[in-house]
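name: query_chain
kind: protein
chains: 1
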Amino acid sequence: MSGSFFTLLQATFRRRADAVALEEVERGREYRFADLDALSARFARVLTDLGARRGDRVAVQVEKSPAALAVHLACLRAGLVFLPLNPAYRADEVAWILENAEPAIFVRDPARGDELDPRARAAGVRRVVALDAGGGGELAAMAAEVPADFPPVPVAAEEHGAMLYTSGTTGRPKGAPLSHGNLASNARVLVEAWAFGEDDVLLHALPIYHAHGLFVAAHCALLAGARMLWLRKFDAERVAALLPRATVFMGVPTMYVRLLERPELDRARTAGMRLFVSGSAPLSPEVWRAFRARTGHEILERYGMSEILMHTGNPYRGERRPGTVGRPFPGSEVRIVDDAGRARPPGQPGHVLVRGPNVFRGYWRDPEANAEAFTEDGWFRTGDLGFLSEDGYLTLVGRARDLIITGGLNVYPREVEDVIDAVPGVRESAVVGLPHPDFGEAVTAVVVREPGTAVDEGTILDACRARLAGYKVPKRVLFVEELPRNTMGKVQKRLLRERFRALYRDLRPGKASA
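structure:
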């Protein structure tokens, strides 16, 4: 029996053949489930005709489109490994991944041939083909000439179906292969946990080169037989206008901040919605409360990453606690341990370890990284710090690399950020540790003000002193117009540390109380 995730999806495609699977909003075009099934068959035929064989990687760097989604489905169908790349990656970034992943085929934007084709040839890619944002280009033209009759290739559940490259904030990006079993487990669990059904309409405004937009949002809708309202990119005005037609929206925290800026966002506009989901970055409790006050909806925050897909979530039915990422999904486990690997009691922060059918088996061709990433008994070290409540809710307090050690004491940035974000006039904050001659690292806050407000350093420090131990209070508060983020909305604290690294440099030891 095949373990192919595609065969699971195809059962839905055939059951819902005449129903609309995807409505491309900007172009006013609809795709039935039968259309996606047929298009994926055509692309699978072309990819294999071009020489791709079971287990080969297919790298894809194109703009979001229904055709790009169909290429992903084609790879699953043909036993190939779908490798999506952020369209914003420049030539050097693309070249590194092509060299490391050794794909058989590279699908790229037609406009980038002169820039990328020489790098692909140098990396040994056997064939490069083009696909544009409108679903046209060489690959589409070839697909139009072949029949839509490609039987799914039988694969084992442990065979790779996709591979994502990590953000590379601590070095070169690493490939994280995901098996058909990983993808199937993730989709099944989420459809059940979030009560997805055929009557749902998912407003899809996320990119599909990332786990959130592809393996969470799109897979849930495809497996459940739900309709997607498909936007090429997030636009707060357009999303707000479409909410009355939708039942589910998934976004990153920045999207919710932008939606709250729309005056038309209210209870009436969201009356037909049943679920708002947030992920990919921490959601501020202040944003959570503001959204509930405006719409009456409690955003469901969940936790996952490229290597583990979705692992915990606040309940669909039950208490959703702001500032937490909920309990483990069925079949998933979480442990909190200290530096020596000993279990931490409830309420005490430590390293977050996870295990479950959604967790990948190891990085692509990187045994050293795998030795660091997995414990001897098979738990994956996420690199996150957090704690569990008595009843099993997980609260994240930061990345291990973002932990601040000041005067020998640990400071978890999230704890300080929550205090600062609650100060009137603060839009958002990021707390980092900067080199300091006396303390080793100085707790430093970088703050974005709400437009039209004049909250100052003294007000923020007073709020921190009232709620935090002295060693957790920032030494300085710096104000910026915006925080640096990656494409999925995560604050890039590494860039803040680099930008302000010399802030305390001229202080002399013993005179360093600034």
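note: The first helix runs from residue 5 to 15.
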